[in-house]
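Exercise 7. Predict the structure of Adenylyltransferase/cytidyltransferase family protein from Pseudoalteromonas neustonica.
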Amino acid sequence: MTLNSQIHSLNSDNKSSHNTRCLALGVFDLFHIGHLNYLKFSKAQGSELFVAVASDDLCFENKNTFPIINQHERMAIISALAIVDHVALVPSPIVKTQSTCKWIQAWGVNKVVVGGQWQNSERWNEAADALQAYDIDVMFAPQTPNISSSGIKKKIITSYSDSL
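Solution. The predicted structure, encoded as tokens:
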């Protein structure tokens, strides 16, 4: 079930502790235990978990490379998790702060959970300030030590470069 098909039914009165709509964002390429820990932590912060997956094009804009797993497959993987209630593509980059505030608010989200690696980043400092004006909280999830998609990619290259 995609989030976009659910937006029209969202109730804007969602600030009670029993009805906290949380948003987790990410690329989720080469899904690993760090992603799962992040999503579990995010789900524990509220009653509903919305996940925004970065599109292939957005990844290319930010990193000058496409993810290994395409956006449709990454969304299917995230959608299959029982802890996830809604999945959609990120409508606009976080650096477009006002646009970001509008789509997050339109989704009825009142708490954004961001990966700990982004804490104190300029991008998320600005976004958190802007979202606070909409009464949307931002918090940072603890990082899973020694795990990242980039690290996994490097390990694959290192481990298998001789046999290729």
